[in-house]
Design a protein that fits this description.
By secondary structure, the chain is α+β, with helices and mostly antiparallel strands. Helices cover 30% and strands 32% of the residues. Helix 3 runs antiparallel to helix 4. The longest helix is centred in the C-terminal third of the chain and has 28 residues.
Length: 189
């Protein structure tokens, strides 16, 4: 099998949740020609069929911690790129908008990210206390229901009478007070 694809550059980027390995080539790397796996000995291996890499290229690659080493090996039908890295939980091959760039995403296990999450600061406002919000909503709805009921009862009771009963003013007062509190006094946190 001829080695049609020449790997021209390797770049390593370390993120808080994993590592990106960018593989640049002179021709597009077909999806069905790439495979990868993580071994128990602490190495991640990516194999690209029908590809070749200049082994002198590795000497120029700058790899940041926690990547400990990079080794490339050409065989008769493929190139193997090996990275000595911490434990990898998953890996994924991604083809971006550039067909001659392959991105290998190596993700650390979630357990190793707990310190990162502990140091993270929340963005935006904190969560609202849902229980107190639910209680306020129930009280407001009950006050509105009682206010409407008393107002209707006052109108029905005063039908044909010259004097107003206590129900209509009490119901309207409860509706007004609930509206004013809900609209102007209650502070949304």
């Amino acid at each position: 099998m001829a080695k049609d694809i020449n790997i021209t550059d390797l770049q390593v980027e370390v993120k808080k949740n994993g590592i990106f390995l960018k593989i640049h080539s002179d021709k597009p790397i077909p999806e069905n020609t790439v495979t990868g796996w993580f071994s128990d000995n602490g190495w991640f291996y990516a194999t690209i069929m029908n590809a070749y890499i200049d082994t002198n290229l590795v000497e120029r690659i700058k790899y940041p911690a926690p990547v400990q080493n990079i080794i490339v090996h050409n065989s008769a039908e493929s190139v193997q790129i090996s990275l000595a890295v911490p434990i990898i939980e998953t890996h994924e091959f991604l083809w971006s908008g550039n067909p001659r760039e392959l991105l290998v995403s190596l993700r650390f296990p979630l357990d190793s990210l707990k310190p990162v999450f502990a140091d993270a600061k929340p963005i935006g406002k904190p969560n609202v206390n849902l229980e107190s919000e639910l209680n306020y909503s129930r009280i407001r709805n009950a006050a509105l229901l009682i206010g409407v009921s008393l107002s209707v009862a006052g109108v029905v009771a005063s039908d044909g009478q010259e004097a107003l009963g206590w129900e209509l003013p009490t119901g309207l007062g409860l509706l007004i007070v609930t509206y004013i509190y809900d609209r102007y006094i209650q502070i949304d946190e």
